[in-house]
Amino acid sequence: MITSVMIVGVGGQGSLLASKVLGRAAMDKGIDVKVSEVHGMSQRGGSVVTYVRFGDKVYSPIIDKGGADYIISFELLEAARYVDFLKPGGQIVTSTQQIDPMPVVTGQAEYPQGLIEKMEASGAKVDAFDALTVAEEAGSAKAANIVLMGRFAKYIKEISKDEWLKAVEACVPAKFLELNRKAFEMGMNA
Fold first, then answer.
1. How far is the C-alpha of 47 from the C-alpha of 49, rounded, in Å?
2. What is the CATH number of the domain that holds 17?
3. pLDDT tens-place string over residues 96-122
4. What is the domain extent for residue 130?
């Protein structure tokens, strides 16, 4: 059995670290894992996508439309943008944070409304919460990525909380470890 996860967001939100934590947690468990490179305008605030696939034997990290079991999204519009990559009945774990894309910033468009309802209408299960506020409560808005991983960890039964925390420890600089541990736990309990 292979689990396919797309991590989507906007450049600078920490999707690369999130994919490293997930990949490390699976690898440390002895599960075969493949992680794609980041696709998108990560340095310019554009859309960013990372694929993580893990299971018995994974041959490629790439996920086609209709192939993702999970989408972890750092921003609401990004979750909606990639909903067609989700398998029927797949799970989205998303922050309700909204970052205006360039057409909204320039006044050429408005930020779409009712995105959660639209994703649910497409057949997706949506777990939406304010990861940014939870991260701020943990000590830094920059920890929203780890808050989301904590929330996502509840869906991955084969990896224990302690194993997730070891992966966080392996991927985060020591000076930010306590903050990220707290962010992960708060995400799990949010």
1. 7
2. 3.40.920.10
3. 999 888 888 899 999 999 999 999 999
4. 2-189
